[in-house]
Amino acid sequence: MSMNEIHPMDKLIRADRMPHIWCSGCGLGTNFICYLTAMEKSGLDLNKCVIVSGIGCTGRIPGYTNIDSFHTTHGRAIPFALGLKLANPELTVTVFSGDGDLFAIGGNHFIHAARRNVDINIICVNNFNYGMTGGQFGPTTPLDAKTTTSPYGNYEHPFNLVDLAAASGAVYVARWTSIHVRRLSKSIEEALLKKGFTFIEIISPCPTNYGRRNKLGDGLDEMKYYREHSIIKHGINPKEADLSFNGEIVVGKFVDIDKPTFLDNQPDMSQMSVNNKK
Amino acid sequence: MNNIKPAVLTGEHFMNGDYACAEGALACGCRFFAGYPITPATEISEKMSRRMPEVGGIFIQMEDEMASMNAILGASWAGVKSMTATSGPGFSLMMENFGLGIMMEVPCVLVNIQRGGPSTGLPTLVGQQDMMQARWGSHGDYEVIALTPSSPQEMFDFTIKAFNLSEKYRLPVLLMSDEIVGHMTEKVVIPEEKDIKIVNRKKPEKYTDKYLMYKADKDLVPPMANAGEGYKVITTGLTHDEKGYPAMNAEAQEKLIKRLCDKILKNKADIIETQEQETEDAEIIVVAYGSPARSALSAVKLARKEGIKAGLLRLITVWPFPDEKILEVANKVKTIIVPEINRGQIVREVERCSYGKCNVISLPKLGNIHTPYEILKVIKEVSL
User: Fold this and answer.
1) Is the CB of B98 inside 8 Å of chain A's CB atoms?
2) By the number of CB atoms within 10 A of the CB, which of B145, B275, B301, B384 ranks highest?
3) Site from B73, B96, B234, B238 to mutate, A interface, most A CB atoms within 10 angstroms
4) Residues A99-146 pLDDT 10s
5) Predicted pLDDT of residue A274
6) Number of Cβ pairs closer than 8 Å across A and B?
């Protein structure tokens, strides 16, 4: 490849920030490009697209994205994004963050934003551990998996994120892996254009920490594993969307419904002024 | 949404401090409020839940105070003036993202109607125990602006002042009120809309690819681009350079943190406000803020009736601390008395700034306000 060649997504990347911090074999580069592709294909005004993250490896995505980008505190991306969206409903607001950030320290914000059906999009990169701090177990680490803080195997039950999202009220719920590039891009595009709280989980390799300690091989081996073990089951009950340590990975779009958003449900004050004169 | 009622309720009202705070915010253009119920600040949320829809703004009751603080930061980045209100336990939770607001330089207002602590403490009774937390509560080095109202009228006026300072200096400004002022009902005069002075954030010039998010002007404050305006905002809680890019090195840390502090410290003359009564010939001065300043004023008047040369220095801005004013007073008087509804927090600053030039007496009280006679008693003792 010539050094002068320009990346197809160049205008959406802050190229002067390259090289990025991600490890060789990490899924984040692929996930990032899927998001950029989706944003471009969506036809949305890029000046009105906003990306927000918390802390972690995934949390670094906004800093590389050449749109309005916000790198907030650990776990707090969702309420920050909610503030942006409600204060300016013209914005298309996407939170791109990791499993630990969104579901451990930020779990409460996730369920409440979903319950309110605030019109924001959540993309969660689930690599089953805290990558940036060196590979500790998190709220999605499978039982028995080894991490730096579960040296004898993880003895905590993990969340099923798609089930949690659906139960909390998300209007769009999907799960893909980093190898489902085309389907993932399409799904993100759908979410960006969907009104209401959307959730996409991306199963993604972390060869340096999670993969190495669990003998999953390098990043490419993890990708091969996803290809061989993923089963697409659109529309199934997210409760049954299994995600076991060494077994199959159920992917697909599980929820796609419509219901009024937080802003749709705001009181109609022109009516209130008649009925509630006080 | 339709604006069915005016945002500025011009006229004379009989109103409690919490409501006056909400009206002050609306009067100066606040259109986003995020909060979590907590005594004794809940009335601010309640008023906002009724009034925000009337003026086309957003009221949201968040899941906790960390979320409330973050939501107002997000709203401010979308270009809408925003506020939250809480008390001690919530204030502790807000400290995390108060720091983010300092680092990202986000204009907004955080109201603390102080109650007794630590922990759940005294939810329904007054305190001034968060004054040092206001200064140092989030980790790292930074400067803050904190105002201390003493009446419902000042809850209205200082909320506007807090918004103006936050927009001018790009930081979350603290309104450090207390339960007595929040729950007290008094006359509040709301002026005509045209008579309310409003400061709005500086805007950057038209976007070019040379645009720098955090390049400060001479006043050390960078103009602020909002989301959705085409500036490709990049901001982070990490130490960053003028571009807004993370910069993990000592030089960047030195440069950024120094500027964040200096933008307050070098503009102290513009920020700090104090008020003096009967101080010209005073030999004894009471330094007070918030609700105890009311008892202090009564005590000073009673002392004057008995021929004692007493005066009051009321701190309107507690942070940044009025160092020079305290030294000026310390050079003139024999004794400074500092009544506070805590075990003695601001008195330490008074001692620091008076350089031993006069006697400094702490007058701590917990769970209740000092009566004028309690302060008078000390004035009389030291006048002997």
Assistant:
1) no
2) B145
3) B234
4) 999 999 999 999 999 999 999 999 999 999 999 999 999 999 999 999
5) 45
6) 139
pLDDT at A1: 52
Q: Which two tokens stand for residue A188?
A: 């993100």
Which of the residues in chain B have pLDDT under 50? 1
Report pLDDT digits (tens) over B252-270.
Answer: 999 999 999 999 999 999 9
**A63 at interface of B, judged by CB pairs closer than 8 A:** yes
**Is this structure's pTM higher than 0.95?**
yes
* pLDDT at residue A277 in the model: 45
Kindly state whether B209 is in contact with chain A, defined as any CB-CB distance less than 8 angstroms. Answer: no
| Contact state of B53 with A82 under an 8 Å Cβ cutoff | no
Check which CATH number belongs to the domain holding A59 and give it: 3.40.50.970
**pLDDT bucket at A273, cuts 50 / 70 / 90:** low
- Say yes or no: ipTM exceeds 0.85: yes
DSSP-derived pairing of the beta strands B335-340 and B359-364: parallel
Token output for B29? 């253009």
Q: Which of residues 30-59 of B touch A (CB under 8 A)?
A: 31-32, 34, 53-54, 58
**A8 lies in a domain?**
no
Strand (E) positions, chain B?
Answer: 11-16, 32-35, 58-61, 82-86, 108-116, 122-126, 146-147, 172-178, 185-190, 234-236, 274-277, 284-288, 310-315, 317-319, 335-340, 359-364
DSSP state of A278: -
**Contact A125/A96 with Cβ under 8 angstroms?**
yes
Interface test with B, best of A74, A82, A277, A278 (most B CBs within 10 A): A82
A210 closest CA partner among A135, A100, A103, A115: A135
Q: How far is B275 from chain A (nearest CA, A)?
A: 37
**Number of domains composing chain A:** 1
Name the nearest CA neighbour of B174 among B240, B120, B221, B107. B107
The predicted structure's pLDDT at residue B95:
98
CB-closest option in B32, B99, B100 to A86: B32
Q: Is residue A2 part of a domain?
A: no
B68, B96, B230 member nearest A73 (Cβ): B96
The Cα–Cα gap between A163 and B327 comes to 63
| pLDDT band of A278, cuts 50, 70, 90 | very low
